[in-house]
Design goal:
The protein is mostly helical and 157 residues long. The chain is 87% helix and 0% strand. This is DUF1772 domain-containing protein. It holds the Pfam family Anthrone_oxy.
C-alpha cells in the first residue's frame, strides 16, 4: 500500500490550521482583563511556535495542491487554504505585531515604574490596546478558520 503524500500533507495542514484558529478564537471570547493576563502569559510561547504552525500549514496545503495536480477537485480548495494561511502571516506581521509591540511597551511602563498617578493611564492604555488586539486577533482567527474549512473540503474531495 503506497502512502498518498498529498493526503498526509493535507491532513497535517488541516490539523495545524484548525489548531491555529481554535486556540485563538477562545481567547477572543473572554473578558478584557482575563484576555490581558492570557496574552502576557502566552505571548512569548506563541511567537516561537506560531510562525511554524501557520507557515507550515500554508506550505502543506500548497504542497498537497501541487502533489494532487491542477485537475484534482481538491486543488482549488488547497490553494485557497494555502493563500488564507499566507494572509494570516501578512496580517500578523503588519497589523497584530504593532499592537503587540505597543502592549509590551505599555506593560513595561506599568511594571518598571513605582506606583504613581500615571498608573491608571497606563492601565487604561493596556485595556484599550487589548481591545484592539482582540479585534485584530478575531480577524486573524477568521482567516485561519477559512483555511481550515477549505482544507477540510479539500480533504473530503
Amino acid at each position: 500500500m503506497a502512502i498518498n503524500w498529498a493526503q498526509v500533507l493535507q491532513l497535517a495542514s488541516l490539523l495545524a490550521a484548525t489548531h491555529s484558529s481554535g486556540r485563538v478564537s477562545v481567547d477572543s471570547l473572554v473578558s478584557s482583563q482575563l484576555r490581558t493576563h492570557r496574552w502576557f502569559r502566552a505571548w512569548d510561547f506563541g511567537r516561537k511556535y506560531g510562525p511554524f504552525v501557520v507557515t507550515g500549514s500554508g506550505l502543506g496545503f500548497l504542497g498537497a495542491a501541487l502533489l494532487d495536480g491542477i485537475n484534482s477537485p481538491a486543488f482549488g480548495f488547497n490553494v485557497a487554504a494555502s493563500l488564507s494561511m499566507g494572509l494570516v502571516v501578512v496580517y500578523t506581521v503588519f497589523i497584530v505585531f504593532p499592537v503587540n509591540d505597543k502592549l509590551l511597551e505599555a506593560h513595561a511602563n506599568l511594571t518598571d515604574h513605582k506606583k504613581s498617578d500615571d498608573d491608571s493611564q497606563t492601565t487604561e492604555d493596556i485595556r484599550s490596546l487589548t481591545a484592539a488586539w482582540k479585534t485584530a486577533d478575531l480577524k486573524r482567527t477568521l482567516l485561519s478558520t477559512f483555511a481550515a474549512l477549505a482544507g477540510l473540503v479539500a480533504a473530503c474531495k
